Amino acid sequence: MNDTAPLSNTPSNIDDLQTWLNYWGHVHVTGIDLGLERVIPVAEQLGVMRPNAKVITVAGTNGKGSTTTTLAAILNAQGLNVGLYQSPHIYRFNERVKLLGKEVSDQTLIDAFVQVDQARRFCNLTLSFFEATTLAAFVIFKQQQCDVWVLEVGLGGRLDVVNVIDPDVAVITNIGLDHTDWLGDTIEKIAFEKAGIIRSNIPVIFGGQQDIPQAIQNKADESQATLYAIHRDYFYKDSEDGQTWNFASSGTTLKLPLGTLALENISTAVAAILVSGLNISQQAIAQGIVNAKLQGRFEVRQIQNKTVIFDAGHNPHGVDFLLKQLRKFLEYNKQYTEVIAVFSMLADKDIQSVVESLKNTVKMWKIAPMTVPRAAPLQQLETALVGEAVQQFNNVQAAFQSAIEETKNNQLILVCGSFHTLEAVWEYLEECQ
What is the pLDDT of residue 374? Predict the structure, then answer.
């Protein structure tokens, strides 16, 4: 395929990260282009296909961010040099690539982008935004000689650019109906795509709350990969003290502190650590769980003396997670008797199901359209909320401002529906500082 970006537009000598991100946004003809044919030659040219490191790859519909964050935090607590790759970001692109728990600098990304651009030109190939930025993360991890690469799959698994790297441990958090246009319209079709990260003779962790999809079992059997499933091979249980929980698997029982992320994802991360072959102490596991924080995953903040919970759950499974944690929070913080939601979603998501899940918990909905492609218009949000107490606003920032100004002491604010909803509020808060 010929290069679609004019040579004069190459920002190789420009030291501005946003210029590079804009560039990668138009090098390839489409934003999403599943398949590894174009990526593999460029990855080979960059020398990133076979890392001299342990690789843990995490796929799934929900819970990938929490699981990869916990994995990296535990490994960092052990003193290992960890490269963590996640997507999407909420506020800054740099959030996608972390070394030792810290976002990499603009300059580190720019240097890697120059290498990726040179390699793809050498191969006379175009790359999508996601392909180019993922390869840049790999370049950084290789240069930094990371001991462990923790990689979050962007979309699916089998044809995602992350899958050019062979993992030593494969983790599949759960399977839900999301991105059906790309991955298929049944759980089994989607499971087949996620199972694409499984390799021969490696441990595979399945952390989904449902029965193991047949496609995952089949792929594990074909690959002679040992499959460990939650509620079958490893277990988690809350302690009555509200401070600790218990992890159990064959021959292993651990009493661990509660973190801020969903327990099923934390336990899946612990299971992956235990089968990884890495020598990780119980102290590092406990410390990592406490340290693991993730923007926008049931993130509780105090803003102008109001309690605000940010959660990026945007499909039924993600909202089930949110509700579990919200109920637990309300149980321990009985001063809050009402929830006010600042809410917006993308038009192609299952808005009706998300609203159905939340409506018995939310007292008042403050809705607004987002300023991104695919944003649901007010009319679509309003239709899903028929019969609910709703206030409409022109933008998410105005909805949030109203919530902050009007919320009473017995009410907490929930910002939810999409990463983009959260991003709009982050920008508003940044401007207010």
Answer: 87
Residue 2 within any structural domain of the chain:
no
Which of 225, 257, 291 finishes a domain?
A: 291
Res 177: pLDDT: 62
CATH of the domain at 220: 3.40.1190.10
Q: Is the peptide bond before 11 cis (omega within 30 degrees of 0)?
A: no
Residues 303 and 287 in one domain: no
Its domain, for residue 405, covers 299-432
Sorted by sequence, the CB contacts under 8 Å of residue 322 that are 6+ apart come out as: 298, 311, 313, 358, 416
Query: What per-residue confidence (pLDDT) applies to 183?
Result: 52
Mean pLDDT, 10 residues at a time, the chain of 433 residues: 44 78 80 73 97 96 92 98 92 93 96 96 93 97 98 84 96 74 68 92 94 93 97 91 90 92 94 98 98 88 94 85 88 93 94 94 96 91 96 96 95 94 91 78
Tell me how far apart the alpha carbons of residues 89 and 109 are, in angstroms, rounded to a whole number.
14
- Provide the number of structural domains found in the chain: 2
Report helix, strand or coil for 395.
coil
Q: Residues near 382 by Cβ (< 8 Å), separated by ≥ 6?
A: 367, 390, 392
Q: Are residues 400 and 320 in the same domain?
A: yes
Q: What is the pLDDT of residue 309?
A: 96
User: Which pLDDT score, from 0 to 100, does residue 176 have?
Assistant: 75
Residue 378 lies in a domain: yes
The residues, ordered by sequence, that sit 6+ positions from 39 with a Cβ below 8 Å of its Cβ are: 127, 131, 135, 161, 164
According to the model, what pLDDT value does residue 1 have? 39
3-class DSSP state of 81: coil
* Helix/strand/coil percentages in the chain, nearest 5: 40, 20, 40
- Which H or E run includes 218? helix 214-222
Distances (CA, A) of 287 to 82, 200, 256, 291, 328: 15, 32, 9, 6, 22
Host H or E run for residue 211: none
Is there a single domain that holds both residue 175 and residue 256? yes
- The angle formed by the CA atoms of residues 44, 45 and 51, to the nearest 5 degrees, is 50
Per DSSP bridges, beta strands 169-172 and 203-206 are parallel
Q: CA angle, corner 34, sides to 28 and 38, nearest 5?
A: 55
Q: What local confidence, expressed as pLDDT, does residue 185 receive?
A: 61
